[in-house]
Amino acid sequence: MTTAPGRRSSTFTRLLRHGFTDPSVAERHLDLPALSSVRTDPVLLDALGATADPDLALRGIARLVEAQDGEERQALLDTLVTAKPLRDRLLGVLGASEALGDHLVRHPRDWHALVTYEATDLHPGIAEFERELAGADDPDSLRVAYRRCLLAIAARDVCGTTDVTEAAAELADLATATLRAALAIARTAAPEDDARCRLAVIAMGKCGGHELNYVSDVDVIFVAEPADGVDEGVAVPAATRLAAHMMRICSDTTVEGTIWPVDANLRPEGRNGPLVRTLSSHLAYYQRWAKTWEFQALLKARPVAGDPELGAEYVEAVSPLVWQASERENFVADVQSMRRRVVDNIPADRVDREIKLGPGGLRDVEFAVQLLQLVHGRSDSGLRSGTTLEALRALAAGGYVGRVDAAQLDDAYRFLRAMEHRVQLYRLRRTHLVPEDEPDLRRLGRSLGMRTDPITELNQTWRRHTSVVRRLHEKLFYRPLLDAVAQLAPGESRLSPEEARHRLVALGYADPAAALRHLEALSSGVSRKAAIQRTLLPVLLGWFADSADPDAGLLGFRKVSDALGKTPWYLRLLRDEGAAAENLARVLSAGRLAPDLLLRAPEAVAILGDPQGLRPRGRAHLEQEVLAAVGRADGAESAVAAVRGVRRRELFRTTAADLISSYGTEERPAEEDPGALVDRVGDAVTDLTAATIAGALRAAVREQWGDTLPTRFAVIGMGRFGGHELGYGSDADVLFVHAPREGVDEQEAASAANTVVAEMRRLLQLPTADPPLLIDADLRPEGRNGPLVRTLGSYGAYYRRWSLVWESQALLRALPMAGDEQLGRDFIELIDPLRYPMEGLGEDAVREIRRLKARMESERLPRGADPMLHTKLGRGGLSDVEWTVQLMQMQHGWSEPGLRTTRTREALAAACAAGLIPTEDAQTLDEAWVLATRVRNAVMLVRGRPGDTFPSGPRELTAVGRYLGYEPGHVGDMLDDYRRITRRARAVMEERFYGA
After folding, report:
1. Which one, of 79, 28, 89, 17, lies nearest residue 58 by Cα?
2. Mean pLDDT, residues 158-176
3. What DSSP character marks residue 141?
């Protein structure tokens, strides 16, 4: 074909119109001598334009025609032009699969496999595939015969003769026939081994479930028994040799390529276990050692090759164990960990392209269906299908899943499987990733029937279906639970109370009867409030189940809803602000402290919906609010009640932010730096405590003296308060200092100061709904035997004459927190020479500090406490780290300004920067200190009361683990990590502190 320069031929234009992306190359293919007789055939061009990739299809047909000899070439061309079934099938395959096009070129006569169009050809089964493979007597001929069968399956698939589930079933049937053929080859090669044993091949996974991909591992389990008169010790090795040979026949790469890997890793003990076991050995393992996921895998077990009677015996024997799995003691923890493994298996750089493992992908559907089967299949044998969509239909028919939800999930699953099939078919490679290149996306979209704008349509449809799956993945579990307690339309099926109880137990609820009562109270009725709750609860129940205490979460939600149910903004906030609902679920189910704080003033739930609501408020802002509240109050008690109300609200804000940052949400991952979490909590609680004390001081002064106290007065923070390291359960360690105003008698000033201190302590501990703030002044000179308040001069006299080295050490944490700012600065100026002595500590002082530490370790650890797990006084705990840092501060603070800080981590970093401690040692101490601090905070959050060691109850211990980032079932890992980290810290401490 020649045209004038600069002008396009009519063929070029026609090719563009028919969907070719490179018409110039297509014209050259059509100009080949091999296609001379059909190049102008309009039917052929129309058929090419109907394929997924017309360019690829034309290139494939050109190569195939050239590969034929003379008579065969003409037969192919004649059939191509005159027989529409062949034309559609052949071009459809060539336009969708480059790999099958390559196969046809290597085996040019295999195009005949696409000619027949009989009824049996439309839906072949195992018997038909076995006939096709019957002549294969070696690995290469088996590969060729397999690909020939695959050609026919792909042709029916791309032409729409079969739908995606029928194609998947055909692929599974072809795999079955191939395994049988491979086993026959292995038996022929080793007749002695064959005579010694009975061997059965059990298909698992997608092959077992009759839903195989084009390119997938074929998961199997082998079971064997001795032949009559043969010893088991002889039979099992013989069966193992046969099984291994069968696997190699399928998996090895030869000149004809490979079929697919045969994977036996789902067997007992996985790769570490024997390849072949007897039936009794399988049962012994499953009864004693198997994990829940192994029973989940056995849902799809199906005998496919070898001894059929033994295969049937295997399935019959393991089936009862599968359907009893939900009664196992660790079922809930295993289920939760399995759900997380779905997400954790996604490589971060592929998450947006994953069809199988990505959010809203195939694995989400399969997991949801399988879990519901495990929960309800023990009492309903109709649910026991290994095929995902068959099981989903049965679940819907039985009322275990809503019919509309099941239909939407079925539609999404079919689309995602069709995408997966087309992606794999192109090059017959095992992949579950949506391609990135435009030509590949275009081919994929067109192969799924999208012709107008295939790339845009593909992305929109894919995202829509994954969104549906993500939404229904949770709703699938929880919606029927609401239906079980709600009034349904006539004819609608629903879970029975017993089935609802089973499901709640499987999802981690310890008291399913109470949970159902809460659901009924929240969602029953025809009010707008009940309707909104029915929308919210399926998702909330999923979030509760993702926690250590789902029951507490649901109970807390009912209490908050009862308190705020008539408030117009509450349910609207949860419905319209997605973050608010998830944040509330996390807070209510993570322990006792945060829900207790919220339930005392439920309106604080509004904090959870404000994007800035979880940020801690600074000390200046808090003091301004607190002092304004005191100024508006009528008396001291009402003033401090308002102050304590602010403290309660801000404690809730801090605990909520801490829990949400530790757990993470769907939109924001968990905070990766535990040190940042500890610092944030320490600063927030310290600032709040300082503001609370400032408010109580102002209220006490106003009650008796108006605006001015007869003496200047300051509160000095000590211990963790002064170090900005307060936890949720910490008291406020303080010193009180005063200085009489000019012209005021010292005795009058002292009396006023003592009265103020007594009143502050009384007001902050009055029994109310708000948590008290305990003020501890035991670090004052002379301890409990000394006066509560001293003048600045009295402190100076005491420290000059009587001060002991431990008091100087305690003053390392002293920081003014409330009251007269200048007096606070004067106090710091007074004590600096004591805590940072010029030229450092003498040998006697160092020896005394070490003696005191050793005595504390031997005398102060509570009786019965595990020294390995006590966060404060135990090995490598807070005390070890802090005394090590404080010794460096007292020895070198006079010459290293960075050490003059009340904060442990800041001082440790300064010591490292100054070369006083190696970086590795500093990191070891810091890691241990942060971990111990987080454990203390976790205990308070979970139990609602302070503690220095891990709780003993399994649910509370699991909750502490979740806060620290450990998944359910990994409590042992948490304790091991704590022991390991603190053991290393103790080794550093002994070297740096004791000089060991």
Report:
1. 28
2. 95
3. H
